Fold this protein.
Amino acid sequence: MCIRDRAYIPNAEGFLTRWEDAARQYREAEHSLGRAQLNQPYGDHPEQLFDLFFPAGRPLGLLIFVHGGYWMRFGRHDFSHLAGGATLKGWAVAVPSYPLAPEASVPEITQSIVAAINAASLQTFAISAPEKPGVCFAKNSMSNVLITFNPNF
């Protein structure tokens, strides 16, 4: 949540705690049902991991949720619960983490996202290929820069 937004949202800090709890509960529930593959590596950096959530049946495609946080905050554990709507509609959902600034530059973060997309796509479609595989993206905050200005997409 942006600092500037906090002034306009009552109990803004509480959102982060509620989201953390909701994300943890969703991960645990989906993992216990066998519909989550957690901590899947896509690179050598300790933050280059993604969580992959599957629908009850064969996926229609893959949605990749790229988290924001101004490239300096958050990770896949903070947004797992946002996969729920897409999986209920039949989509597999990958939620990657990536190295954060200032340790990583924005171009390095962008390349991490490319690697995560490739790995999640290969893994999803190797397990259960839809008839017409498609990949789409969802994001929040500044993560639009990681997708929009990337020449790989």
Remarks:
- The first strand starts at residue 36 and ends at 41.
- The two ends are 27 Å apart (CA to CA).
- The CA atoms of residues 137 and 148 lie 10 Å apart.
- Residues 106-127 form the longest helix (22 residues).
